[in-house]
């Protein structure tokens, strides 16, 4: 892949979280981007899951997926965020041509835990945690809400909950009624509990051992 193509994408992405560079064209682009390591096919997904993240994540992931056959690694540390953005990232991973490894550092809460489920190999460090809960919405202040609008929001939340439960159930092979019970409150899992409940494939301790099953 030509480095000038990568340079063009990032310098023409509005509101990107990635820094711009005025270094020479032939400098290793991966060294300029703290959230992306092209050489090792690694993406660092850290912080709130929000819409502006997609402006750089989708192009970067697509380029990595098209430019090689080795697994793509996503190192994830997030308390969650926008459900729809999380679903977009989940689907992006699921449709990848190459295997994708997601490694959790610290925590994968809320929609970040659903992103984790998209990976071909789900890894968590031994002191990290996962949290599952039901989705919620924040209504704008000083804007009148009628019963029809409330009903519409309720139906939408129930639909999203069904999708999330289905994703967890299918990926972990856990009965659907059990996954629904996890979303009734805020259910936390230690690394061992996440492994025992098939929410991850491996617990990463002193050294990483990545094996696809």
Question: Overview of this structure, please?
Answer:
The chain has 213 residues and is α/β, with parallel strands linked by helices. The protein has a single domain (3-135, 184-204), classed as Alpha-Beta Complex (2-enoyl-CoA Hydratase, Chain A, domain 1), CATH 3.90.226.10. It is 38% helix and 19% strand. The chain is built from 7 helices and 8 strands; from the N terminus they run H-E-E-H-E-H-E-H-E-E-H-H-E-H-E. Strands 1, 2, 3, 4, 5, 6, 7 and 8 form an 8-stranded mixed β-sheet that branches. Helix 3 runs parallel beside helix 4 (111-117) and helix 5 crosses helix 6. The longest helix has 26 residues, at 147-172.
Question: What is the level 1 CATH name?
Answer: Alpha Beta
How would you sum up the global shape?
A: globular
Q: How widely separated are the two ends?
A: 30 Å
Main beta sheet = 8 strands, mixed
Q: What is the count of structural domains? A: 1
Poorly predicted segments: 1-32
Rg over CA atoms, rounded to whole Å, is: 19 Å
Average of pLDDT: 81
Strand content: 15-25%
CATH topology: 2-enoyl-CoA Hydratase, Chain A, domain 1
- Classified in CATH, the superfamily is 2-enoyl-CoA Hydratase, Chain A, domain 1
Q: What is the number of E strands?
A: 8
Secondary-structure-based class equals alpha/beta
Helix tally equals 7
**How do the helices and strands follow one another from N- to C-terminus?**
HEEHEHEHEEHHEHE
The CATH architecture category equals: Alpha-Beta Complex
């Amino acid at each position: 892949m030509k480095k000038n193509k990568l340079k063009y994408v990032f310098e023409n992405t509005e509101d990107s979280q990635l820094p711009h560079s005025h270094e020479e064209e032939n400098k290793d682009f991966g060294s300029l981007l703290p959230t992306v390591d092209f050489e090792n096919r690694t993406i660092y997904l850290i912080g709130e899951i929000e819409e502006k993240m997609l402006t750089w994540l989708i192009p970067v992931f697509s380029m990595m997926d098209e430019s090689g056959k080795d697994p793509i690694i996503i190192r994830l540390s997030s308390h969650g965020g926008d459900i729809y953005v999380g679903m977009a990232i989940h689907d992006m991973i699921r449709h990848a041509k190459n295997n994708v490894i997601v490694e959790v550092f610290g925590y994968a809460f809320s929609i970040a835990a659903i992103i984790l489920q998209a990976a071909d190999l789900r890894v968590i460090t031994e002191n990290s945690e996962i949290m599952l809960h039901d989705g919620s919405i924040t209504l704008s202040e000083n804007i009148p809400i009628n019963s029809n609008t409330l009903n519409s929001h309720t139906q939408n939340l129930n639909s999203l909950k069904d999708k999330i439960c289905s994703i967890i159930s299918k990926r972990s092979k856990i009965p659907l009624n059990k996954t629904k019970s996890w979303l009734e409150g805020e259910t936390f899992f230690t690394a061992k509990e996440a492994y025992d409940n098939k929410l991850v494939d491996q617990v990463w301790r002193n050294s990483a051992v990545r094996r696809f099953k």
